[in-house]
Design a protein that fits this description.
Elements (H helix, E strand, L loop, with lengths): L1 E5 L3 H13 L3 E5 L10 H4 L9 E4 L2 E4 L1 H12 L9 H30 L5 H21 L13 H10 L2 H4 L9 H11 L2 H9 L14 H7 L5
Parallel strand pairs: 1-2
Antiparallel strand pairs: 1-3, 3-4
Helix pairs in contact: 1-3, 1-6, 1-9, 4-5, 4-6, 6-8
Length: 227
């Protein structure tokens, strides 16, 4: 059985979606990142970058949500194009686009707009601009099509859904209307029973809001003028 280390937020949610869609048996293990549990030695042994999600599949450890999606899709031969097809190359490109661009910029937009200890106008402007720019690209890509790659629902749609479901928090409220194609994809996926279960597994009952600055590592980092 797969051990699935998770918490709230977009990245664990998209992995939960795959596990639920594919019917892969898994044991969810909650990591309270607000309390700094991701910096404990036993978790760092799994992911030295101290981030969730992580899966342990027998003797294999995989971290980074998009890497996990690709690993699971290839292992179970589900929700991924044939390697010999042009869609495979497109899928990899869009998966990395989300991993290296849309996801990080969206996360930074959320952080500086909602969680930073003091307002930093330049950071807010930069990350909001980049988040919008990346969602503009996805919006154009989805024009006249249901899914990002080919005609079938795939892991790249799951990766996008993880972030796009939080669009009103990533961007300004009035921005959301600019992305009808993205909203339609979120609605299509959100209507699937597996998505409902993925959302539920990432909503830990009674956990309460995270204590964003309870982590001493983060305090030290912010004090260095690097952030």
């Amino acid at each position: 059985m797969v051990k699935f280390y998770l918490g709230g937020g977009p990245n664990p949610r998209k992995v939960a979606l795959f596990l639920e869609e594919a019917g892969v048996p898994y044991e969810p293990i909650w990591v309270n990142t607000g309390e700094g549990e991701q910096h404990r030695p036993e978790f760092l042994a799994l992911n030295p970058n101290a981030k969730i999600p992580v899966i342990v599949d027998g003797d294999r450890v995989v971290f980074d949500s998009n890497a996990i999606l690709l690993y699971l899709a290839e292992k179970h031969e589900m929700f991924v194009p044939e390697r010999s097809s042009p869609e495979w190359a497109e899928m990899i490109s869009w998966l990395m686009f989300i991993a290296s661009g849309l996801g990080p910029y969206s996360g930074q937009s959320v952080h500086f707009r909602h969680a930073a200890p003091e307002e930093q106008p330049y950071a807010i402007t930069r990350y909001l601009f980049e988040a919008r720019r990346h969602f503009d690209i996805v919006e154009d890509r989805l024009a006249g099509r249901e899914w990002l790659v080919g005609d079938d629902y795939s892991i790249v749609d799951m990766a996008l859904w993880g972030w796009a479901a939080f669009l009103s928090r990533i961007l300004e409220e009035e921005d959301v209307e600019r992305y009808p194609n993205v909203a339609a994809l979120v609605e299509r996926i959100g209507a699937r029973p597996a998505a409902e279960r993925a959302i539920a597994i990432g909503s830990r009952p009674g956990a309460g809001p995270p204590k964003v600055y309870a982590n001493p590592h983060l305090f030290r980092y912010l004090a260095t003028d690097k952030g």
